[in-house]
From TrEMBL:
Coiled coil segments of this chain: 4-45, 73-131
Domain of life: Eukaryota
InterPro entries registered for this protein in UniProt: CC-FHA_domain
Source species taxonomy: Eukaryota, Metazoa, Chordata, Craniata, Vertebrata
UniProt keyword terms in alphabetical order: Coiled coil
Record's protein name: CCD27 protein
Amino acid sequence: TGTISSLQRQMEIQESELRRIRSEKQLLQKQLREREVQLQAVTDKFCSLTEEQRQEEITMMMKEENHNLQQIVTDQESQLAEQNKLISELQGTISQLRAEAVTTRLQLLKHKQAQKEIQSQAEALQHKELQTRVALEHISSKFERYRNKIIQATFSVEGSQDPQTELTDDEVLEALQKIINERMEFLQKLKNKGGK
């Protein structure tokens, strides 16, 4: 946004300069017209002189005025050429600034779109994380119930003592394995004696 504002300010400055140059051009053209009016006034003035004086005076005045006008025209042409060159450069700069402003706007739109996509992905990940937590809590609850059943089955065997402290998973498995081994030994003894 700052870049766009800067570009717009530069465009306004360049356009203001262009207007100033055009105004100066109009002023020079106005001065030229005023010179032409003055020349006409001088011509009218000499109409009252005698023909010979008139011709001589007019010739001198015309030479001088022509010289002055030629100099003015040369100066104005030079100034107009410089102004036209500057106008062309300013128009090129304005076009470039406009193009840069359009490019910057497009980049901003792309950044906003990317930001929206990232935000959408983040929301999807948060939703997935929530689902995963719920599933994990459900699995943890089932595991805890299963663990409690194993502990209950293990220490409900005749001759077993209830644990005095909270058991680790390894201790539970060890106690369960001990019961399984004892039963396997008991079954083997029965087989050896021929019992059912």
